[in-house]
Amino acid sequence: MHENHEDNEQEWPELTAMKGHVDEITIPSEVKLAVANGMSLGRKRKRRRMMARITTFSACLLVLASVASVRFSPVVAAYVGDIPGLRSLVQLINSDKGLTLALENNYMQPVGLSDEHDGIKLTVDGFLADESRVIVFYTLYNMDGRKQAVNLQEVKLMNNEETSVAFGSSYFNEDWESKQGTIDFNIHEGADIPDTLDLELKVGKDRETAGNGPVWKYVIPVDKSKFEGLKETYDINETVSIEGQCITFGTMTVYPTRIGLEVTYDPSNTKELFAFDDIRIEDEQGETFGTINNGISATLIDENRQVLYFQSNYFRQPNQLYLRANSIRALDKSKLEVLVDLDRKELLSQPDDRLTFDQAGITQKDGHNTLTFHLKNDDPLDENRTYSLFENSYSDATGQLYDSNGSGGTSDGNVYQYIKKADYQSPLKLTISDYPSRIHGDINLRIK
């Protein structure tokens, strides 16, 4: 990923300022919190565990928005070279094979609409769309050279409420001329994309700063003829058992921008299955298309069903397709609760002795009341991975429910849970939403 670093800085100077501020793989806690604060879901989820997962997945948007030292194919370069603003923007999706293939097949719809307020201009450069997803590419310009952090806030489509949205955010406390990024709209099943995208958003360091500020507005025309009917559906309907845990793979739908795979977890499973480590779709040539890591990676259907999203091979048209996986992060359902005694500053229950609690108790970090945990983890599968361990909701000994102010983690194993200021009765009860324990087995299903 980092080859030809100096050449790229000369070729795309507008992205140079974006480099180095965020590590490509390790996401610090303050970044995760910024992304969590920037996330907006179009409808409420039945389980807050999925909401936490979606927030974590969406943090990868920020990572991609900071990576400028990549190359894209000559085909893509030739296509976007004539569209202002898109040449460098294409790097934001370079790690997604499906989106790169979409560009190679003339799938981008250029826009070029701008709005400006208080010395900040935002240009919508173009978008990719199909019946399930819209990815908007934008550029922010610092017109008067002000020194401040600027992030997108309150992003929404005014004429389509049946969407969820993910977008990155960043903290650049120095001179900057332009920033580029993507907004990923997830279209709920059965909802139609309108003839125009009536996009509204605010710009500011945080929601409070942007709250009373102006609204950036765009009416973006959509050529639906470019994507209507472009999908392929496969009914897999097969159940596998991994260490006694049953998983059923249902319908898989291949769109130009992504693949959606319905997955059902047996309610009688003794373990909570958090996430697949390496699930992928593979063709007869051995080329793999992994899960989406720069946008929304999953949506919840109900308590035991979800749709996983993969990079799309729609424009490849393979002769054979296989679904493969080898390990799944999972934990006994009896070990999901973590009890924190705030008076004695210790854990009364935890999944295992790898998770410990900071003896400082409730501290201040990044302006938040914070519980700090440490997770000892030397599994090679988790190299450079950070964990947001807990669901958004928690309770105290009285049964009072609270919503957390976010969570985060660092590569050295520290895990932060940001909690509200309150007169808690110990112990606090938190629920695990992801953990580095696993079940292993070979999944190998023929799809096509």
From TrEMBL:
Top-rank lineage group of the source organism: Bacteria
Pfam families to which the protein is assigned, alphabetical: DUF4179, DUF5643
Domain DUF4179: 46-140
DUF5643 domain span: 232-338
Name this polypeptide is given: DUF4179 domain-containing protein
Sorted UniProt keywords: Membrane, Transmembrane, Transmembrane helix
Native source organism of the sequence: Paenibacillus anaericanus
Transmembrane segments: 50-70
